[in-house]
Amino acid sequence: MHKREMAKEKDVPQLLASSSKKRRLEVSIEHAPAAEGSLAPYAAFFPAGLPDNPHHPAENGSAPDQKEGITFEAFRSTAPFRGKHQLLLGRGSGIDYVGANFPTKQGSRYVVGLFNKVEGTLKVTAVGGDKVFRMEPRVPGLEYENDEAAASVPDEELEKDQAAVAAERRAKREMLVETFGSRKARVQQNARQREKVEEDTIAAPKALTSLLSSAVAAVPTREEATRSVTSLESRLIPPCNPEATTPAGVYPVKLLIPPEVQKALDLEPYQKAARHPERPLKMYFGGDISDLVKKRVHKLSVEGDPRGSADRIKCLAYLAYLVEFYRLPPQKVNRFCSGRRGADSEEIVAGRGVEALAQEAGMPVIVLETFMERFLTKLPGRGGGTEYARPQKSADLTIAYILVAALHVDQFCSDPEDVAAALQMTVGQLVPRYKELGCKVRKLTKAQKEAGGSGSGYEVTLPVPVVFPALKRGR
């Protein structure tokens, strides 16, 4: 190491005078690499002042002697991803000096004290950052706000840290979605979590092999896939008999309306209205009645069936309840029927119940419970309990039941205009839904429209034997 020569007081004027003279010197710079396996040389800074005789090296691991001054040793980490971490240690008789190029444990705590001479008190407070900051001179104008420590971190360690941060953020995001997210967001998140294959979900390699084997076995063959495409189970339609020879037999009433619901239907107002079509409907129904039902009550009495068939009357009463339930928002169902945790307790607080909701909706309890079971999906609610949702598939199935019930009342020759109005849809939106049921949709000419009194200009029929359209297979 180079020795620094100190200038004497009498030499200072001479040095200052000579510094003003311009001289040209020729110098050469040569890079001297460190010896193999050596960590030196080091540059050290002593904020408390230079120690006495700081350049004494350690010899053969001997302990420092008070007369010999400070013994310096250098250490390099052998831990994975820590190869660049080095520590310089100077041990003396009364004090140690420690320097490192990585964050180390705090050797002491610093406080700032304020002494009050009048009161004789000393107030102390910890310094910010719990250490004394070393202010180094730097080139002005550069950005120092960003953390420059990441530049010295190995790529493997940096990737590991980034993965840990990403996992922590993902966990917090999932917690927020579970607590404050919408019903749709929670369903999507639960589906993504079920699809994950991680170490904590697979106990051993054998379990992974079993999981993959079961997944391969679950893949359908070409024949099975073809059968599933043409299968009635994959269609969002009511139970049907494709071998039936009559339109009413394709969607039989006994399968369309469950027996317990048939017993709960109030058919008397419809029977009286069918026997006396000249009387106002308010005599039998009391309150408001939808246009969809109002237009079909007078169709119950036909030639050869003056009182209306029992099946068509059941379908009309069932249709009225179906439309009412379709208009019922799931949020209202949740207010009445879903349990939630109370604000001041861990107990599940139940809503007013299905009975109260059925009374407000104007339908029997058994009918409402059947609709909720068939056309709604149960989900875990916020803070416990259960919530109800209406996914798109459930809404499509409800519409299919409404269309079939209306076809029964119309004797399978229907004008879709009032059905579309009741569902707040257009006739064009209902056309593909009718075709999915196996119906034939015919656009009427102007003369046919005027003769038949069709408001929409379309006629929907159900030909037999029924033919269903081919299902679209996802790629």
Automatic annotation (TrEMBL):
UniProt keyword annotations, A-Z: DNA-directed RNA polymerase, Nucleus, Transcription
Nucleotidyltransferase in keyword set: no
One cellular component term from this protein's GO annotations in UniProt: RNA polymerase I complex
GO BP terms, alphabetized: RNA polymerase I preinitiation complex assembly; transcription elongation by RNA polymerase I
Subcellular location: Nucleus, Nucleolus
Main location (coarse class): nucleus
InterPro entries according to UniProt: RNA_pol-assoc_fac_A49-like
Sequence segments annotated as region (Disordered): 1-29
Compositional bias (Basic and acidic residues): 1-12
One Pfam match: RNA_pol_I_A49
Domain of life: Eukaryota
Regions crossing the membrane: none
Single annotated GO MF: DNA binding
Keyword tRNA processing: no
Family: Belongs to the eukaryotic RPA49/POLR1E RNA polymerase subunit family.
UniProt-recorded name of the protein: DNA-directed RNA polymerase I subunit RPA49
